[in-house]
Structure formats: structure tokens, C-alpha cells
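WARN retry 2 of 3 for item q-0093 after timeout on previous attempt; input resubmitted unchanged.
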Amino acid sequence: MNDWKKIKQKLINFLELEVKNTGHEKVVLGLSGGLDSAVVAVLCKEVFKDSLLCVLLPSQFSSKASVDDAIELCEKFDIKYEIVSIEPMLISYINNMQNDNLRIGNFSARLRMSVLYDISARERSIVVGTSNKSELLLGYGTIYGDLACAINPIGNIYKSDLFDFAKFLGVTESIVNKAPSADFYEGQSDESDLGYTYSRIDEFLKAFVDNNSSKDELLKLGFEEEMIEKIIKRVKINSFKRELPKIAQI
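OK item q-0093 returned
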């Protein structure tokens, strides 16, 4: 059982210190209407008060519920927000992507982050990240897109644990109860993309990453060989997304 009160205070201390170390006083984050960004928004509101700005960045593929849920959260916690549609920018390039959902999703994520960094420059603020530990380990994110940020308070918390943390923080039920989705296209689901539920994935990652379990030990824990090979491969081949670019040493 996680001590969310203690974890919350630790993350508040982290945010206060790391933002202060950058010389900034204000922060911005992209609020999607999903669980992760909602948790980060609530934490940042407590620390930075009116020096927090949340930016909603819908496209033509975003569900109305995503925007409505994000606005509901902002109204509950009195969070400043603005809405900037990426639809015009996406329309201007989308014909080059041959209806490839993966390319459209990655391009959309990078458009959103470009806008967010521009707004951070306008506000003289820094960008706070919203990727959880499960996504970071699996590489389930877009490099220089949603993975881009200056600091990240939830990058060491697994997705399945964030549901309980969100409830502890008082995140709105419409967000806590919805199925995880990057909202890149109609009907898109994180767990469908990954092939397993987050609870099952996180159970595996805790054993493999946190406890350094071997393949034999994972099999004894009840994980199928196909899942073991698939997830281990995914963690390894996506490790570059969790590192700074490699620079040749001369």
C-alpha cells in the first residue's frame, strides 16, 4: 500500500526545488483530459498556484470528452487554462502521411509540444512532463513530443498506481474512470496498442525492472513466454528514448 500523503509531499518538494534551480517561477503543461496530466496539474496547482498554466491542445481527432474533462478539472481546482487547436497545422501536412495512424499520432504529439514550448517562452516558464514510469519503460511515447519536458514529477510512478494517487488527490471521476488513451484517433486505446492491461504490464515491470527477476523467475510468477519476450524487447529497444542523445567522443 503506497503512502500517498508522503509521496505527494515528496513530489511537491521536488517541484519547488527543481523549478527554483532553473531560475523560473512559472510552469506550463499540456492537459489532455487524461489521468497523467491531471495528476501533474493538481500537484503543480498546489505548488505554483496562479503561476501554473495548463494548455489544452486538441486536434480534429480529439474527442469532445477529452476537452470537457480537462476543463472540468481546471474549474474544480481553479487552474488557469487556454485552448490552442493544432488542427490547422495538422491539416496543412496530413496528406503527406498516407493515413498512417502511427505517423499522424507522432506528428500530432510533436506539434503539441512545439506549441507548448512556444507558450512556455511567452510565459517565461518551464514545461512540466506528464509521462508515467510504465510509458517511459515501454517507450510508449513520442520522442521530442509528449516525452519532452524540463522536469517530470510522475516519471517514477507506474500507470496502474496513478489511479489510486489520482483518487487521493481528488482528480475528477470523469478522468479517473475513463480508459487510458492518447486520443490520437477515434477509438484509440493505450491498452489495445500495448496488447495487455496496464495492471498486468506493471506487475511484470515491477518484477523485471524493480526486482531484477530472471526469465525463469518471471515464468514461475505466471507470465507467459510470449509476454516476457515481447515486453523485455520493448524495454530494451526503446531505452534510447530515456537518454540524452549519444555524442561521439573524440
